[in-house]
Specification:
Helices cover 71% and strands 4% of the residues. It contains five helices and two strands, in the order H-H-E-E-H-H-H. Keywords: Membrane, Transmembrane, Transmembrane helix.
């Protein structure tokens, strides 16, 4: 019989991407509570992304090439864009796509919170897919923005640092939820196998009982037939005397 220490040692020797689940527990708590924290974190990140996308779209819409606009929101803003118009359109497109992905991820995060209460691992998949797509998109978008925008301004520098950190946290949260999904999927598979085994055993027992009952009924029928034959009266055979031996004494 394999001991628990042997299994744990074999697990530690495996590479992290070959383990199932990837993580035994989150750093600060177990996988279930870590998944709750991941859903709350993703909702907060989506709200931040939507606000940021609206702000970027507004700034790029005001800063048309060749135009100058002033706004005052507690702080004076000067909207000036001196780059290529196609680059500006791509930046607007990136903000729109980021906003839509944030809406999708927020919806999936709410679904994840409901699925965690009932431990329905099948409903983890929308969050896993949307978080993966959102993180990959944000990595590409933030590096594209850092290339086309001037990093001389502190706003662009701050966005680059913030989103690098957020994407790293996204990967960690994705691994937590994925590990929880793998653990629950393994438990569900074992439960299904146990139910299948119990169903097979019950059907075999039922078939054995039916076959035993049929054998007993056949034996009973043969015994009753034999007893009926033994209780029938035996017919008397007529005794015939030979003519040669029949002699009468005459007086």
């Amino acid at each position: 019989m394999v001991s628990v220490s042997t299994v744990s040692n074999d697990r530690t020797r495996q590479k992290w991407y070959r383990r199932r689940p990837f993580l035994v527990k989150a750093v600060f708590t177990d996988l279930q509570n870590g998944s709750y924290a991941a859903s709350v974190y993703s909702i907060v990140e989506c709200v931040f992304m939507m606000i940021l996308a609206i702000f970027d779209i507004y700034c790029l819409a005001e800063a048309q090439p060749g135009s100058t606009h002033y706004r005052y929101f507690g702080i004076s803003f000067l909207f000036v864009y001196s780059g290529n118009q196609h680059i500006r359109n791509l930046l607007i497109f990136c903000s729109i796509v980021s906003f839509l992905l944030a809406v999708v991820l927020m919806t999936a995060s709410i679904m994840l919170m409901k699925a965690l209460k009932k431990e329905l691992e099948v409903k983890f998949r929308p969050w896993l897919l949307s978080m993966l797509a959102f993180t990959i998109w944000r990595v590409m978008a933030i590096f594209y923005r850092s290339i086309v925008n001037d990093l001389y301004f502190s706003y662009h520098q701050a966005m680059l640092v913030i989103w690098i950190l957020l994407c790293a946290v996204n990967v960690f949260m994705w691994l937590i939820v994925m590990s929880n999904y793998q653990e629950l999927a393994d438990i569900t598979r074992l439960e299904d196998m146990a139910k299948l085994k119990m169903g097979t055993m019950s059907s075999l027992n039922q078939s054995h009982s039916l076959s035993r009952h049929s054998v007993d009924s056949v034996k009973q029928q043969s015994f009753s037939r034999h007893s009926d034959d033994s209780t029938k009266p035996v017919s008397n055979t007529r005794s015939t005397t030979p003519k040669s031996s029949a002699s009468t004494n005459s007086a």
